[in-house]
Structures are given as C-alpha cells and as structure tokens.
Design brief:
alpha/beta, single chain, 502 residues, eight-stranded mixed sheet, 21% strand
Length: 502
C-alpha cells in the first residue's frame, strides 16, 4: 500500500514528483485556490488560479489539471484537483470532497515515487480525509497481470499537517488502518472464484487471525451438517467446493459492549438450479462482498484497539447447479429450527445469512449488523452508488445511516413494511424464501428479521449497488471491488466503544 507521511515543509519546497493543490468553484470570479496552495501560487506570481481558468479548469468535483511546475517549486508537476463548490465564509471543506479529491489525484499519479498533497489539512478530520482518500485512490489490483503497467503511487506526503501533533498522528493511524482493510476487502472481492473458494476464504481469515491476535473458528461441511445449518448447507451442496461458517472475534479486556457483524459470503453465485441468464453472472464473484467487509472491519477494530468486542460471522458457500443442488420446491430446516421452502435458488443469500444470524444471536450481542449484496431490487430502488439500511429499531437505523454518511458511504434508510410479511408465507413450510417481487429488497429484509434473536437490536445493509463498480473509477472508488460498508462497520465499532451508539 502507498506509504503515508506528514510534512511541515512548504508545498513548493518539498521534493516530489508532483505537488497536488485544491481548487474550488467560486460563485463569481472563476476557480478559487484552496488552503495549502499558497506557496505554489506564489511561484506562479499569484496567477495560478487565472492560469487554471485559462486552461478550462473550474474547480468542479473530479476535475484534474496538470501543469509544469515553475521555478520556485521543487516538484516537477503541479496537479490541480477540483473540490467542488467553495464552502461558505468561515466554513471548512466537506471531508468527502477532500477524500474524493485526494483519491482522484493519487490515481492520476500512478507510477510516481512521491507526491506532496497540499490540500486543506489544518484540522485532524481534514488530515484523515486527505490521507484515506489518497490511500484508497492509489489502490490497484494487479495480482493476475504479468504486465500491469505503472504501479501505484509509492508515497503520499500530506503538507501542512503536524507530525508531532497527537491528533494529527492519530488521524493518520486511523486512516492507514481503515484504508488497509478497505483494500483487503477489495482484494478479496476482485479475486477470481476459482481461487477464492469458501475453504480458501476461511484460510485467509485464519492467517489474519494469527497475525492480529483474533480468535477464529471454522465450521466445515461435516460440522455444518452435524450442527443443523440447513441454510448454509442447502446453498452449498450443489458445489464441488463445500461451504464454511467462519467466526472471527476481536475482544478488548475493558470492553462492556459487543457487536456482531454478519456477512454474506457467496464466493460465486450462478443462481443454482434457478440459473442466472448471460449478462447477469459475469461479476458474481462479488457476491461475497458482505463477508469481505465483515472480515476487514474486525481486523480494523483490532488494529485500532477499539474498546469493544466485535465478532464477525462469515457465511461462505458457492451456489452452483450440481447434481446435489437444492431444487425449487425443496424444504430446508434452518439452524434456528424454522423450515424454509425454497422457491428460487437464486435467493440464496438470505438462506446462508439466516443461519449465521441465528447463530450470532445465541451470543446475545448488544447489536447485530448484517451486510450483503442481497437483492437486485435494492439496486433498482437506490441505484448503483448507495446501499439500503433496514432495521428492527428506527433509532438504530438512523444511527447507522448517520455513521455511514459521515464516513462518505452513501446510503438510504428503508422501511420494513409489515404488510409484505405474509407474502412469503408457505403452504408447505414455516416460510418461503421468496415473496412478492415489488419491494423485493424489503421482503428480503423481513425474511432476515425472522432469524434475529428476540430483543436484539439489528440492522441490515443491502450493498448490492455499491459493492462492485462496473463503470470507470472516480474519486477514491476503483473499478471492481469497492470495499463497500467497511468504513461504516468500523465507525459503528468506534462509536460503540465511545458509548455513542448503544
């Protein structure tokens, strides 16, 4: 991962391949330089903003302009990156604008050895925003490419930050830990399914457990059968690579609160017997994004030493149409004891999550949050860029939404309409795994609620939209796996540790 340093040097005086400055959109008078660019502007004779305007720059979000550096600037290139609308007088820049700007610049500087980021960085939250934006924007997945071209930016130096300031140092430590885990999740999502089987995923968790002092338990297919995990086994039984349920736990000696994170980990989803058509299965390696987010967030909590107990549950399976696969019409007996009639084998995520939710509930955590690329219906409702949040407690749903937005993860609170509950009643079993199609994302949430222990606060994040970016990169978001929900889960753990969530 890109190295991150803090520098007290003036932006123009720092030796680097490039120096990055911010430009915002002013209401009148052309683009406006953001704080941090002063010494670079001086080297331009105070005409950097007008020069950028002549080149067509306006300061819009995502905009990037490169200029040869003049005498007086030790970097070879000046990179001006757009921050969007200028803040009101006396107000600072939105952290998400800083994240996106830093990410845009870091990606554009692939192959460079060092870049000086002279973006607003006076306050710790600004330092953290620039740091995590740069680290996430520099990400590249090149494991399977013999000639991947330019490597990621080697070092990002944040100019104007204070290396000896405790708050600034802590901001960088948080950004480094969280960015590393978002990138871990991205790597897992981008790994081809012939390499990332349920067994291989479980092995990766075990390796991280040894490295970071986490307690890891893995249930293989024999243990799952013996334990009565009918949902996980029912989904995985059609594949030559059997399923796993992984428990990964971080604990703190002084913790008084506990969280359980539950992740859907379908390492490849063909749809099973209800086979997906061409055009809908090419990216289904990403159907384990929820489990990747849960795994990464537990590691991040350990790295940060948060005063909270966090347990991750990864329900791992491959959904394939083999000779032993579950058929539409089959009835599965779940870990909770409920029976489920399977009407559509492509509604498999809720089946593996149901077993994991029921098992997680047995430990009576203060709250459970599950994360899953669960429904196409949620993508239709909210688009590609945001996830839906459902919960059995409106206040908790609001708290999760607030935490997500603060981290720059776009999301939207969704209801759980009780009138939809009866649509997945079954004449054969206790319930069916499908209800009406309109509001399908909400039906899936209601199904999951059936398996949450009584009295336990619970939220469900449907990340089907933002988990995998099939378009071009933008801001700090790469093409492919995005690491969606990691930052939200880490924020929830931090808020719980601080006593501000539960």
């Amino acid at each position: 991962m890109t190295a991150l340093t803090l520098s007290t040097s003036a932006a123009a005086a720092l030796r680097a391949d490039a120096v990055v400055v911010g430009v915002s959109k002013a209401a009148k008078g052309g683009p406006r330089l953001a704080p941090g660019a002063e010494t670079v502007d001086a080297a331009f004779g105070g005409k950097l903003a007008s020069t950028l305007e002549t080149l067509g720059a306006a300061g819009a979000e995502g905009e990037l302009t490169k200029l040869p550096a003049p005498d007086g600037v030790k970097a070879a290139v000046v990179v001006a990156v757009g921050l969007g609308d200028a803040p009101e007088e006396g107000a600072g820049f939105d952290p998400e604008a800083l994240r996106k700007a830093a990410g845009t610049a870091a990606r554009a500087l692939a192959g460079a050895k060092k870049a000086a980021f002279a973006l607003p960085a006076a306050a710790p939250e600004e330092v953290e925003a620039v740091a995590i934006g740069a680290l996430l924007g520099a990400y590249a997945f090149t494991t399977y490419q013999a000639d991947s071209g330019k490597g990621p930016l080697a070092e990002a130096a944040i100019v104007g930050a204070k290396p000896r300031d405790k708050a600034h140092k802590a901001a960088v430590e948080r950004a480094t830990a969280v960015a590393a885990e978002v990138n871990r999740a991205r790597d897992l999502v981008n790994t081809p399914p012939n390499d990332l089987t349920p067994k291989a995923f479980a092995a990766a968790v075990q390796a991280a457990g040894k490295e970071f002092g986490l307690k890891v338990e893995v249930l293989d297919e024999k243990a799952l059968l013996k334990g009565g995990y009918g949902g996980i086994m029912g989904v995985g039984q059609g594949s030559a690579t059997p399923p796993r349920l992984v428990r990964v736990a971080y604990s703190h000696a002084k913790a008084t609160r506990s969280l359980a994170f539950v992740g859907k980990g379908i390492t490849y989803d063909s749809g099973g017997i209800s086979l997906k058509p061409p055009g809908h299965n090419e990216t289904m390696k990403c159907d384990m994004s929820g489990a990747a987010a849960v795994f990464a967030s537990v590691v991040a909590a350990a790295k940060l030493g948060l005063e909270v107990n966090v347990t991750g549950w990864l329900a791992l399976a491959e959904n394939m149409p083999g000779g032993g696969a579950t058929r539409p019409g089959d009835v599965l007996k779940m870990y909770s004891g409920k029976t489920v009639e399977v009407l559509n084998t492509d509604a498999e995520g809720r089946l593996v999550l149901a077993d994991a939710l029921a098992r997680a509930s047995e430990e009576a955590p203060d709250a459970i949050v599950d994360v899953a690329t669960l429904t196409g219906a949620m993508v239709l409702a909210l688009g590609d860029g945001r996830f839906g949040i459902m919960a059995n407690d409106d206040g908790f749903r609001t708290a999760v939404h607030t935490a997500a937005l603060a981290e720059g993860e776009d999301s939207w609170p969704m209801p759980l309409p009780q009138q939809l509950r009866k649509t997945f009643d079954s004449p054969t079993a206790d319930i069916a795994n499908m209800g009406v199609r309109p509001g399908g994302g909400l039906v899936a949430g209601l199904f999951l609620r059936e398996f949450v222990g009584e009295g336990i606060t619970w939220a469900h994040l449907d990340i089907a939209g933002p988990a995998f970016n099939e378009g071009g990169p933008s801001g700090y978001t790469p093409k492919g796996g995005t690491g969606s929900a990691v930052r939200t889960l880490v924020a929830l753990a931090r808020l719980t540790a601080e006593g501000d969530l539960l």
